[in-house]
Design a protein that fits this description.
Layout lengths: L2 H6 L16 E3 L2 E3 L1 H17 L5 H4 L4 H10 L5
Antiparallel strand pairs: 1-2
Bound molecules: zinc ion.
């Protein structure tokens, strides 16, 4: 097993995509692959821009995992 295979276990989505990530990122204490990380950043940016939870036609482009990560950390005062 390579170091990349070991590292990839830390991202919950990574069983689903190939090739495995070689560099991992961190969001709010959760280790993520760069794909998930950038989706989290984008979903969070959308939420801030819209001012509330993005509508379904936008949410469908983001996995439940990504949405959950952002929902746990977003400032719901928006
Ligand atoms: Zn992943």
């Amino acid at each position: 097993m390579s170091i990349y295979q070991e590292n990839a276990k830390q991202c919950r989505c990574c069983g689903k995509h190939v090739p495995l990530p070689t560099v991992l990122r961190e969001y709010n204490g959760t280790t993520l692959c760069p794909t998930t990380f950038s989706n989290v950043m984008e979903y969070k940016r959308l939420w801030s821009t819209i001012g509330s939870r993005p509508p379904g036609n936008i949410r469908k482009h983001f996995s439940d995992y990504v949405q959950q990560l952002v929902e746990e950390t977003i400032d719901k005062k928006y």
